[in-house]
Design brief:
Blueprint: E1 2-3, H1 4-8, E2 13-14, E3 31-34, E4 39-42, E5 45-46, H2 47-53, H3 56-65, H4 71-83, H5 91-96, H6 104-118, H7 128-153, H8 167-176, H9 187-199, H10 207-217, H11 222-233, H12 241-252, H13 258-266, H14 287-302, H15 309-323, H16 325-329, H17 336-347, H18 354-374
Helix pairs in contact: 3-9, 3-18, 4-7, 6-7, 6-11, 7-8, 7-18, 8-9, 9-14, 9-17, 9-18, 10-11, 10-18, 11-18, 12-17, 14-17
The structure holds acetyl coenzyme *A.
GO cellular component, one term: cytoplasm
GO molecular function: citrate synthase activity
Protein name: Citrate synthase
Length: 402
C-alpha cells in the first residue's frame, strides 16, 4: 500500500500489486479455486465430478444459471444452442479474406470481433433478452468458427454443423469430415473432446477473463469483449501454453534429452521454461491435469498409439521434474495444458488448433462472467492506477536548444 501524498502530493492511498497477485478485482459466485489444496469448484461442484459425471453443455448451463438443470431445462437449453450453431452465410467471405497460412487464433480474433457486425441485433447490453441471445450465439457458434478457421487453413471446404450430433461430436465432424468420405465420430473421442471442453470451461479471474471483464466494463458489446478475451488467451503464458508444450515435447524428442531441458529450465540466464508446468494459483497440483492425464491414456489406448514417443517423453519429463528439487521448491507441477495437447495431437489436430479449442471451451466462462458483471449493481468501468516513476514537471525545450 502506497501513500500517494508522499509521492505526488495528491490525496489518497492506493495498492501497488504488479500482476494482481493479491488483488480481487470483483466478487463472483461462479468458480472457486483453492490453489493450495488443488481444488476447483464450479458453483460448488468439484471439477473431477463434473468431468466424470456431467458433460459440457450441462456445465455451460450450470455456469450460466447457477444450478444444474432439470431434464426439461437441459433439453430446452441444448435445443437453443443447437439452433444457433450456423454462421451467417456472409461470414464465409470474411473467412476467405484471410491468408490461408494465418494462425487460426488470428482468424478467430477477427471473426468473433466481426460478429458485432453480423449479429448487431444482440449487441444492446441494456436489454436482458439481447444479452441472453448473444450468450447463446457465442457458445453455439464458437465451435463452427474454430472448425472453419481450421478448414480454411488447410484448404478444405467449410463443413456445416449437424444438429443431430452432440456439441463435441459436431465439432469433430466439422473439423474432420470431407465431402468425399463418410466420417464417423467415435464415442470415446467425442467423450474425450467433451472432457477437454469441460475442463477448460471456466477458471475465475485469469488473464483472458479479466480482459473480458475490463473490456466489458466500458459498455463494449459482447462480441468485441469475447474477441478481446481470445486475443489475450493466445499468449504462451496463458492459453497458448498447450501449443507451446507440445512443440517443446517434440523438440525434446526422446526421454534421454530430458536432463538437458530440465537444466535449461533451471538456468536463470536461459529464458526457457518447461511449458505446461507451473500455475499462478495452483501450488500443489492442477485438478484438471489429473483428469486430463487419465483421458490421455484412454485416447491413446483407443488409437493404438500407447507407444507414442510424445507421451513417453511427456511421462518421463513429468517424473523427472517432480523428482527435481527446483520444481518442488517452486511448487511447479504439470498444469492442464500438459496433457490436453497430447490428446489433441492423437486426435489429429495440428498444434495451431490447440489454443482455438481452448478458446471455444472457455467461451462459456467468459460469457458467464460477463453476464454476472452486468447484473452487478456495483459494476463500474475498470480503471487501474499506476505508480508513476517518470520525470517531475519540466519546461519544454525548443528543438534547437536540445
Ligand atoms: N519452468 C521453469 N521455471 C519456472 C516455470 C517453468 N514452467 N514456471 C515458473 N518458474 C519459476 C520462475 O522462473 C520463477 O523463478 P524465480 O522465483 O527464481 O524467479 C518462479 O518459478 C515463479 O515463477 P513466476 O513466473 O513468478 O510465477 P507466475 O505465477 O507469475 O507464473 C506461469 C505462472 C505463467 C503459469 C508460469 O509458471 C509459466 O510461465 N509456466 C509455463 C507456461 C504455462 O504452462 N502456462 C500455462 C498456465 S495454465 C493456463 O493458462 C491454462
Amino acid at each position: 500500500v502506497l501513500d500517494i501524498r508522499k509521492l505526488y502530493g495528491q490525496a489518497g492511498v492506493f495498492t501497488y500489486d504488479p500482476g494482481f497477485t493479491s488483488t480481487a478485482s470483483c466478487d463472483s459466485t461462479i468458480t472457486f479455486i483453492d490453489g493450495d489444496k488443488g481444488e476447483l469448484l464450479h458453483r460448488g461442484y468439484p471439477i473431477d465430478q463434473l468431468a466424470e459425471k456431467s458433460h459440457y453443455l450441462e456445465v455451460c448451463y450450470l455456469l450460466l444459471y447457477g444450478e444444474l438443470p432439470s431434464a426439461a431445462e437441459l433439453e430446452k437449453f441444448e435445443n437453443t444452442i443447437t439452433r444457433h450453431t450456423m454462421l451467417h452465410e456472409q461470414m464465409q467471405y470474411f473467412f476467405r479474406g484471410f491468408r490461408r497460412d494465418a494462425h487460426p487464433m488470428a482468424t478467430m480474433v477477427g471473426v468473433v470481433g466481426a460478429m458485432s457486425a453480423f449479429y448487431h441485433d444482440s449487441t444492446d447490453i441494456a436489454d436482458p433478452h439481447q444479452r441472453e441471445i448473444a450468450s447463446h450465439r457465442l457458445i453455439a457458434k464458437m465451435p463452427t468458427i474454430a472448425a472453419w478457421a481450421y478448414k480454411y487453413s488447410i484448404g478444405q471446404p467449410f463443413v456445416y454443423p449437424r444438429n443431430d450430433l452432440s456439441y463435441a461430436a459436431n465439432f469433430l465432424h466439422m473439423c474432420f469430415s470431407v465431402p468425399a468420405e463418410d466420417y464417423h465420430v467415435d464415442p470415446i473421442l467425442s467423450r474425450a473432446m467433451d472432457r477437454i471442453f469441460t475442463l477448460h470451461a471456466d477458471h475465475e479471474q485469469n488473464a483472458s477473463t479479466s480482459t473480458v471483464r475490463l473490456a466489458s466494463s466500458s459498455g463494449a458489446n459482447p462480441f468485441a469483449c469475447i474477441a478481446a478475451g481470445i486475443a489475450c488467451l493466445w499468449g504462451p503464458a496463458h492459453g497458448g501454453a498447450n501449443q507451446a508444450c507440445l512443440e517443446m515435447l517434440k523438440e525434446i524428442g526422446t526421454p534421454d534429452k530430458i536432463p538437458e531441458y530440465i537444466a535449461r529450465a533451471k538456468d536463470k540466464n536461459d529464458p526457457f521454461r518447461l511449458m505446461g508446468f507451473g500455475h499462478r494459483v495452483y501450488k500443489n497440483h492442477d485438478p484438471r491435469a489429473t483428469v486430463m492425464k487419465k483421458s490421455a491414456d484412454e485416447v491413446l489406448d483407443l488409437l493404438g498409439v500407447e507407444n507414442n514417443p510424445i507421451l513417453a517423453t511427456a511421462k518421463a519429463l513429468e517424473e523427472a521434474a517432480l523428482k527435481d528439487d527446483y520444481f518442488a521448491e517452486k511448487k511447479l507441477f504439470p498444469n492442464v495444458d500438459f496433457y490436453s495437447g497430447i490428446i489433441l495431437e492423437a486426435m489429429g489436430f495440428p498444434t495451431s488448433m490447440f489454443t482455438p479449442i481452448f478458446a471455444l471451451s472457455r467461451t462459456v466462462g467468459w460469457v458467464s462472467q460477463w453476464k454476472e458483471m452486468l447484473n452487478d449493481p456495483q459494476n463500474k468501468i475498470g480503471r487501474p492506477r499506476q505508480l508513476y516513476l517518470g520525470s517531475t514537471t519540466r519546461d519544454y525545450t525548443d528543438i534547437e536548444n536540445r
